[in-house]
Task: inverse folding
């Protein structure tokens, strides 16, 4: 039974990583922007859940209100960042790292000023408290919910990219910006929408994280490194790769942690990813592009 | 013309960004490391404390920014309260206190730098503050080489005493050992240890292991999570399958929130397997969510609910100053008490000079909110009543068990046979 509960722990950790990394797969993967403020967009989503809890009194519904609202708040922050700073440095990924890191620090301080330094708590709705018992195995409802949410986000994003005109435009711009421009697609607008989507996903991840821990100004920093690890290991810009990498890293962390300790497991996962990138620098799934550049 | 990354540049981008990220995360780790300071510029010769006027300077050194600000701001607030009260009461030896505030920024090295500044350029008579053991260890050589005084208000792992530091929080024999005695009395025969991965929990667990061995308690598991760790599913799985009589929790900070949420979600509660924590105080309970910790145990020397006229006055004054929703906690009380203890010492010595205060310290008493405390001149700790409390659904901690009288401080655990060879 230990193996089974660890399997679930790994799956659950994987789904958390996936939620955190999915938005990055868009902004980092598809657009080449190293957005260090991605974690702070998650924080913004988490604080949105906190604010919504204060406004919507019924604890049962506040989570459902917070999810779309978190998406919008994260998305708008992303849009603002893109419109003011990021769009000036699309060809300079390392500059985006520094700029967005600065933005991340500013956002943390803003959160501290607005919500105070102490962490705040978002109470989970009653329909998510406790665990589902399956054959002696207790699966916490919050974990199942996050798993479901991650699946829903992946499906929605895949459908959007594959089956809508907007998705086609995004993929076109990513694959060959100039050719896309010359066929009448506005790459400026597409960039903005892509950034809105990626940052919005961070907002959703933030709302989900309130089910697991407390909400504080530094919430994002604990996830940002793991999220980048997932995107890089998965193969930049590949949703498929991001999914596989998130689940593998989650599983690895859970099983290493079970047989060793939490600190050792973190190191082992990092070593494994670095070793893997030596063999396959392009990540799990490599990008196929028709780009002429 | 803007180029989009193709697979080769993408790989290079990936490796570069990973490298940059690991540097950033390593830089963050660096903050946790104990770094003994060697302050070249500091001279031990003569103190520059100016007591000629009608005021005297004291320094408050707390983290007002960074990861520890959450906790240390509360200590700073209660120090300010004590200073205001003392000034309204006529000051110390007739002199008004002039507060110099410095921000330790949650960095041990900054604590050492700011302590040097407070002592050598602000010329304060004493410094109050510090929280993490790393910050204390970094400041210790500064206070010793400048022969100045630090009042440190937080429970810690013991095994230390310096003539230049007064410890007004609990040492292990006033918190952890009585908590273990309580658990043993309740019939606990197996324990699971969960802690953050740094100096305090590891030292505490060394002591707990020694105690357990001598008292026939089986340690069925010992797990550490990095500071800031937020995914406790594996650790909770291990706790659950070990099925101990109780869990001894030395986690610090945010990790407690994630741990208790996971604990509750996994279907565990205080009835199945009680968790006794030594680092969760009143202000953290709101952050964890009362429903996730109700009925769980804590060990401290003070709770907001302690019944004494001194505590009623302290709680009322604090809430009047900072708001009715602000709870008081053990480190806040210890900090508040430390300023009054310093006043008692100075007035007994009739001098602000460090040597005179050290000389006068032994036997100084003060009726603190936690009860009457006495300073031990040998090890500079104070006697404290030990409490085990249960978290109520009002979000406050209610005393469940109390030691019969204040316990004498014994930082090196010399009075315990089982603790031989621990230091």
Result:
């Amino acid at each position: 039974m230990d193996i089974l509960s660890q399997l679930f722990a790994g799956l659950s950790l994987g789904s958390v990583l996936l939620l955190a990394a999915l938005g990055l797969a868009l902004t980092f993967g598809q657009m080449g922007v190293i957005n260090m403020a991605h974690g702070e967009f998650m924080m913004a989503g988490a604080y949105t859940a906190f604010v919504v809890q204060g406004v919507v009194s019924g604890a049962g519904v506040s989570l459902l209100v917070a999810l779309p609202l978190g998406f919008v708040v994260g998305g708008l922050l992303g849009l603002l960042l893109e419109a003011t700073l990021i769009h000036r440095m699309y060809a300079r990924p390392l500059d985006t790292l520094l700029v967005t890191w600065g933005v991340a620090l500013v956002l943390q301080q803003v959160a501290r000023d607005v919500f105070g330094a102490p962490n705040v708590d978002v109470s989970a709705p009653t329909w998510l408290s406790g665990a589902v018992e399956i054959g002696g195995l207790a699966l916490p409802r919050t974990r199942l919910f996050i798993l479901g949410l991650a699946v829903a986000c992946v499906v929605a994003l895949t459908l959007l990219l594959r089956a809508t005109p907007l998705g086609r435009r995004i993929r076109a711009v990513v694959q060959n910006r100039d050719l896309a421009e010359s066929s009448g697609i506005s790459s400026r607008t597409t960039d903005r929408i892509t950034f809105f989507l990626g940052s919005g996903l961070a907002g959703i991840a933030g709302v989900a994280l309130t089910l697991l821990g407390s909400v504080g100004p530094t919430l994002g920093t604990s996830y940002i490194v793991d999220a980048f690890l997932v995107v890089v290991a998965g193969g930049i810009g590949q949703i498929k790769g991001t999914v596989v990498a998130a689940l593998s890293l989650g599983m690895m962390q859970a099983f290493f942690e079970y047989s060793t300790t939490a600190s050792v497991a973190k190191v082992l996962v990092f070593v494994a990813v670095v070793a893997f990138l030596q063999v396959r620098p392009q990540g799990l799934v490599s990008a196929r592009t028709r780009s002429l550049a | 013309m803007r180029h989009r990354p193709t697979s080769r540049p993408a790989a290079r981008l990936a490796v570069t960004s990973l490298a940059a990220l690991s540097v950033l995360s390593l830089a963050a780790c660096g903050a946790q490391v104990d770094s003994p300071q060697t302050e070249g510029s500091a001279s031990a010769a003569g103190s520059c404390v100016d007591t000629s006027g009608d005021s005297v300077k004291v320094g408050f050194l707390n983290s007002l920014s960074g990861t520890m600000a959450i906790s240390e701001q509360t200590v700073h607030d209660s120090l300010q309260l004590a200073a205001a009260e003392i000034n309204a009461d006529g000051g110390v030896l007739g002199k008004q206190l002039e507060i110099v505030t410095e921000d330790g920024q949650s960095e041990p090295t900054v604590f050492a730098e700011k302590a040097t500044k407070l002592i050598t350029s602000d010329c304060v008579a004493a410094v109050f503050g510090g929280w993490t053991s790393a910050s204390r260890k970094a400041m210790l050589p500064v206070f010793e080489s400048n022969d100045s005084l630090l009042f440190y208000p937080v429970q810690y792992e013991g095994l230390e005493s310096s003539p230049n530091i007064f410890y007004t929080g609990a040492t292990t024999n006033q918190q952890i050992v009585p908590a273990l005695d309580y658990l043993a009395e309740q019939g606990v025969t197996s324990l699971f240890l969960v802690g953050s991965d740094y100096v305090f929990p590891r030292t505490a667990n060394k002591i707990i292991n020694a105690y357990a061995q001598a008292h026939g308690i089986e340690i069925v598991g010992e797990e550490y999570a990095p500071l800031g760790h937020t995914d406790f599913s594996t650790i909770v799985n291990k706790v659950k399958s070990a099925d101990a009589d109780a869990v001894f929790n030395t986690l610090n900070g945010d990790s407690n929130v994630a741990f208790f949420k996971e604990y509750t979600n996994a279907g565990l509660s205080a009835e199945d397997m009680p968790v006794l924590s030594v680092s969760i105080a009143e202000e953290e309970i709101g952050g964890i969510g009362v429903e996730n910790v109700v009925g769980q145990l804590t060990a401290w020397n003070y709770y907001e609910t302690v019944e004494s006229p001194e505590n009623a006055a302290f709680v009322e004054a604090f809430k009047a100053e900072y708001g009715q929703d602000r709870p008081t906690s053990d480190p806040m009380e210890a900090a508040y008490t430390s300023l009054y203890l310093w006043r008692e010492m100075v007035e007994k010595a009739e001098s602000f000079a460090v040597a005179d205060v050290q000389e006068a310290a032994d036997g100084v008493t003060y009726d603190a909110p936690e009860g009457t405390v006495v300073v031990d001149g040998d090890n500079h700790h104070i006697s404290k009543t030990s409490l085990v409390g249960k978290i109520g659904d009002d979000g406050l901690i209610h005393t469940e068990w109390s030691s019969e009288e204040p316990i004498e401080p014994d930082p090196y655990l010399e009075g315990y046979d089982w603790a031989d060879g621990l230091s």
